[in-house]
Amino acid sequence: MRVMVKVLLCHNPNAGNKGHDRDSLEAALKLAGFDVRYASVKDEKFADAFDKSVDLIVAAGGDGTIATVLTTIPDRSIPVALLPLGTANNFARSLGIAGTPQELVEMWDPERTCPVSLGSVTGHWGTSLLLEAYGVGVFPQFLLDARKGKKPEGADNLRQGRTLLQKALKRAKPIEIVMTIDGKSHEREVLGIEVCNIAFTGPGLPIAATADVSDDKLDVVLFETDNRKALMEWVEAPQDDKPPVTNRKGAKVEITFRDAPTRLDDASYEATGGKHSIDVTLEEIPLNVVIPVKHPAQKTPEKKATAA
């Protein structure tokens, strides 16, 4: 007889698409045999939901909601499962996790997890945790532009985001940076720099294609000025080739720059005057993210798909 697993469902109640509301998610979890307790990420006392003992934490929502949940969890030894309900779903996509809530909940084994490190960013404001990336320059400017006007739904949202990024790349002015990766310093003039924890970011773009969430390294991605045109073309069809960027890896990254917009995950900030130095590292204690397991009945067809 299966032991009842106690689950804390952390959910954005504004994720109101059919099948993504509280009742539908609780029903799917109960059907899979989980004992469910609910917590809204919009609740002022959301952090208090972690005070009671559970066997599994479920983060249900888009990238913003998932980041809120994963950076709030006080005890990272408790496994966490994902129900990606957004448009880009960058974090889940980077881990190869996709499917409907009804499918995913029946593919979870809380003992089958992957260690995933969170990033830690320190600057003039103090220290913050990051899930996706910290950036300076053109990518933050695109996110600032995206805040203006009406936000479309679904694929149109991704299409609009990619168009806005192309426009930002076209008009971006080079910025001078000094980056220090694991003690080695480099001075560069670039359109932007992104320190990534995962492969996908923004409008579903794999700008850090070499990122590995379990390698205890951050991926430093440079948008070189000479690659402006190539980057704009790649954004049009990112599935066709690797991004035309410069990659570096390191456990500790320091960036020094002047007067450029910045971003921390999906929060973007206007440029401010003066010189800024930012330190990005990885947290010592990782999260344990549940990786869905296929049912034995799910098999690759004997006649495998081949290219035309």
Topology overview:
Elements: E1 5-11, H1 22-31, E2 34-40, E3 56-61, H2 63-70, E4 80-84, H3 90-94, H4 101-105, E5 113-116, E6 119-123, E7 126-130, E8 133-137, H5 138-146, H6 154-171, E9 175-181, E10 184-196, E11 218-224, H7 228-236, E12 246-250, E13 252-258, E14 262-264, E15 267-269, E16 275-282, E17 287-290
Helix pairs in contact: 5-6, 6-7
Give the count of structural domains: 2
Percentage of residues in strands: 25-35%
Task: Give me the CATH fold name of the largest domain.
Answer: Tumour Suppressor Smad4
Which sheet architecture does the biggest sheet show? 11 strands, antiparallel
User: How many alpha or pi helices?
Assistant: 7
Low-pLDDT stretches are: none
- Which series of helices and strands comes N to C? EHEEHEHHEEEEHHEEEHEEEEEE
Q: Please count the beta strands (DSSP E, at least 2 residues each).
A: 17
Please state the second-level CATH architecture of the largest domain.
Sandwich
Q: What top-tier CATH class of the largest domain fits best? A: Mainly Beta
Q: What overall geometry do the principal axes of the alpha carbons give?
A: globular
Distance between the termini: 48 Å
Chain-averaged pLDDT:
93
List keywords for this structure.
308 residues; alpha+beta; Rossmann fold; Tumour Suppressor Smad4; 2 domains; 11-stranded antiparallel beta sheet; 4-stranded parallel beta sheet; 7 helices; 17 strands; 33% strand
Tell me what you see in this structure.
Helices cover 21% and strands 33% of the residues. It is an alpha+beta fold and 308 residues long.
